[in-house]
Amino acid sequence: xxxxxxxxxxxxxxxxxxxxxxxxxxxxxxxxxxxxxxxxxxxxxxxxxxxxxxxxxxxxxxxxxxxxxxxxxxxxxxxxxxxxxxxxxxxxxxxxxxxxxxxxxxxxxxxxxxxxxxxxxxxxxxxxxxxxxxxxxxxxxxxxxxxxxxxxxxxxxxxxxxxxxxxxxxxxxxxxxxxxxxxxxxxxxxxxxxxxxxxxxxxxxxxxxxxxxxxxxxxxxxxxxxxxxxxxxxxxxxxxxxxxxxxxxxxxxxxxxxxxxxxxxxxxxxxxxxxxxxxxxxxxxxxxxxxxxxxxxxxxxxxxxxxxxxxxxxxxxxxxxxxxxxxxxxxxxxxxxxxxxxxxxxxxxxxxxxxxxxxxxxxxxxxxxxxxxxxxxxxxxxxxxxxxxxxxxxxxxxxxxxxxxxxxxxxxxxxxxxxxxxxxxxxxxxxxxxxxxxxxxxxxxxxxxxxxxxxxxxxxxxxxxxxxxxxxxxxxxxxxxxxxxxxxxxxxxxxxxx
Length: 498
Fold this sequence. Notes:
GO terms for molecular function: cysteine-type deubiquitinase activity; zinc ion binding. This protein has 16 helices and 25 strands.
């Protein structure tokens, strides 16, 4: 490790125009614009800016340069710095400051200004004009990466570092929600948000914005992205509740991530954020306390007359709706194969019709609850409850949910007042997260609709394949994102499979 004194020396030489003894005399301006004879040694195929920006030797984040010949990161560029030593030892001469986005030739230590390098700075820090953002969903042009592969921006594989597919599918789902994506593509939207001193949660916002811009970059060097920096922020901000090396639950991660982003963007219960504007709806909850089941009938009847056992109504907001699956049957068919049951989506949506009652048990008390929706969000998230946990193990319900891809009308689940005020109640699917395999050993994949082409794609880590819409309904859906049709939307919705 470098000493504190050396660290200070390295820190100072960041953008200081310190004269270098080269035996020639040039003024500062001349040194800044000198043509570099080594630009043809740059190897774009090894450049990868998705990983943490720290020196490969000192492990410091301060004043880090990327060697554009081998792709490694080094600290400083002054005499005796790691980048300087690397340039002399390996005759690698072209370096990029990862913070200032300036190019330098070492060991001569002059800045390189050359328009042919713009593609490198754009990959490191993509930027999107408002007109570009406005047209993202209006075309389906394929772009060619530097390595020769073609890709659709937004339909891009995410690297599974070890066991982070549970987070990848959530990030890919959210990156295909246009209003959320558009907000994060333009850094100006959240750059000015003030956070308390020492607050680390805003790191989530910055890293998510960076990931969005990389996923939608039409000038990528490769047709996939590593979410390494995004996931490091998740590990830090969740206090290691979510990790890269340990499989997590996609619904738990989605719930935490949306709430964390809402708070980091300055949102509160009363103050909206882009998260609540896109996903938040509201419902009415009718709750009735139940007497203990072991009590004699006459005691139960007496208790039911008391005020605390009368039905109470409350209003609540939600960012997603949990849909309960019926208990899977245990019987087998003639060939001794377990029957995989199926249930229509509208059956499990019945939970929100204001009539269906369900018992909820707490440690001490039991309640009977029913729900009814009062406000529908522009994008509605369903989380299908596949896992039940007890003290010994996690059990998975494999029931297949039969759902149409388009034209799901939720009007009947609204209160009478809301049915009058809510004009648009029809939704179309835009993302479908699937869990395959056993509860603790399974893997995640996702189906997403590309709005520009109207085609569906399946993404599983780095693998990206197109898929027929009717194949989507055969999977064990776990999380779904539905887009509300607005009045101007045509009935001939893109991506309709049936």
